Amino acid sequence: MPAPGIDVLIRGAGPVGCALGLALAGSGLKLRFLTTADGKPAFRPIALSYASRLILERLGVWARLRATPIETIQVSQQQGFGRMRMEAAEAGVPALGYVTEYAGLHQALYAACEPLLVREPCEARLVVHAEGVSPTAREKRYGQDALVALVRTQPDSATTAFERFTPEGPLALLPLAGRYAVVWSCRPERAAALREAPEHRFLEELASAAGHRPGRPIAAEARAVHPLMLRVQRTRVGSREVYIGNAAQTLHPVAGQGLNLGLRDAWDLASAIFDGADPGEERVLARYAARRRLDAQATIRITDLLAAAFLGSNPLVRAARGGALAALDMLPGPRRFFARRMMFGASALP
Ligand SMILES: Cc1cc2nc3c(=O)[nH]c(=O)nc-3n(C[C@H](O)[C@H](O)[C@H](O)COP(=O)(O)OP(=O)(O)OC[C@H]3O[C@@H](n4cnc5c(N)ncnc54)[C@H](O)[C@@H]3O)c2cc1C
Q: What is the residue extent of each domain of the chain?
């Protein structure tokens, strides 16, 4: 039987767990966070969707974030034709997304939750898994790691993001306060070599993969490598327990969807239990799971598809990819839908 004292124990005080905690403020539910001591996280750029901005505004943390708006996204492929350009105005939003840094975002959310931390597990009417991993999830390791770096270019970055598909994997250059946050997915050996390479060598390799449009890379710092995998928790609810954020699904960063999806998990879970007397009740959790199913499944599929579809140097595949990009560039309807799908999740479905 659950202990009478605590209503909700959130295991993991990462950005998604903390967002849930903030969204439950004022619900009257008694919360605690179970955490492990975190070291300083490696540099990790985060592209937040417009929908995430709306959530973070409601949680009262948006104004404290340093975030650079993305007004244009240019998608192209190395060694091939086909280019697509998406504009915020066309999608009907002030920005297609906002680039910020994991550590700053986490700190802004964490500060409000710190008084509720506990170091030892305790019983609760609902246990929320927000640890970022789940030992029971199905796992597929991609043949890629993500090399991340913060790069200065000439000229400085402004509000255009570049997504470039290379034979080894997608390369994103996201504008971040005048510089570019680079997320470069490539073979694990190559990612390790790029991290260790002397700076001038790294900059040359980046310039050759990125093409001339983002400008000339002149300095790089904060290089780090993240292993990439798809992890999906089979059932996101159990007996008085629920999985959210990366504990429910860990995605390839190709479309920058992981945290955005996790914030929608947190928001929907808070809405489902906010007024309920018993947050761990089976009926309440089943309703939450049903509400998340479409958004989560569609986002997982699209991301996995993108990670695979844009791999490989086979000329036929490259031509098909080029054709798809060129077609999207000419068709405002599907392009607008694609942009809104990435910004709002399943709620953008017609
Ligand atoms: C290179 C890269 C780029 C990315 N770019 C984007 C992007 O542009 N946009 C986007 O939306 N997403 C992006 N993501 C994904 C995003 O980082 C994750 O989806 C997000 O961090 C998930 O947040 P979370 O709180 O669920 O998990 P985490 O961030 O993993 O936080 C989990 C927390 O739980 C703690 N914890 C772990 N184990 C335990 C335990 N046993 N008990 C208690 N606490 C525990 C951890 O220390 C951590 O603090 C990217 C990921 C990578 C790797």
A: 8-138+230-348
Q: What are phi and psi of 104, to 5 degrees?
A: -70, -40
Which of 139, 305, 290, 321 lies closest to 229 in space, CA to CA? Answer: 139
- Nearest CA-CA partner of 346 in 300, 312, 279, 288: 300
pLDDT at 39: 73
44 close to ligand 1 (CB < 6 Angstrom) = yes
Smallest CA separation from ligand 1 atom 53, residue: 226
DSSP for 21-60, please give it. Answer: HHHTTTS---EEEE-----PPPP-EEEEPHHHHHHHHHTT
Using the mean position of ligand 1's atoms as its centre, give its distance from the Cα of residue 1 in Å: 31
How close is the Cα of 14 to the center of ligand 1, in Å?
A: 6
Cα–Cα distance, 125 to 122 (Å, whole number): 10
Q: Which long-range contacts (CB under 8 A, 24 or more apart) does 231-235 make?
A: 231/133, 231/134, 231/137, 231/138, 231/139, 231/140, 232/137, 232/138, 232/300, 233/134, 233/136, 233/137, 233/138, 234/136, 234/137, 234/138, 235/289
**Under DSSP, is residue 261 helix (H, G, I), strand (E, B) or coil?**
helix
* Distance from residue 237's CA to the centre of ligand 1 (Å): 19
Q: What is the per-residue pLDDT for 28?
A: 94
Class of the CATH-defined domain 8-138+230-348: alpha beta
Q: Which residues, in sequence order, are CB contacts of 233 under 8 Å at separation 6+? A: 134, 136, 137, 138, 243, 247, 248, 249
The two structure tokens encoding residue 184:
């470069």
Under-50 pLDDT residues of the chain? 1-3, 349-350
**Rounded Cα distance, 299 and 149, in Å:** 26
User: For residue range 208-227, what is the model confidence (pLDDT) as tens digits?
Assistant: 999 989 999 999 999 999 99
79: which residues sit within 8 A by CB, 6+ positions away?
Answer: 167, 313, 318
Q: How many C-beta neighbours within 10 Å does residue 335 have?
A: 19
Cα 12 to middle of ligand 1, angstroms: 10
What is the pTM for the complete model shown?
Answer: 0.91
| Ligand 1 contacts CB of residue 265 (under 6 A) | no
Is the shortest distance between the CB of 146 and ligand 1 below 6 Å? yes
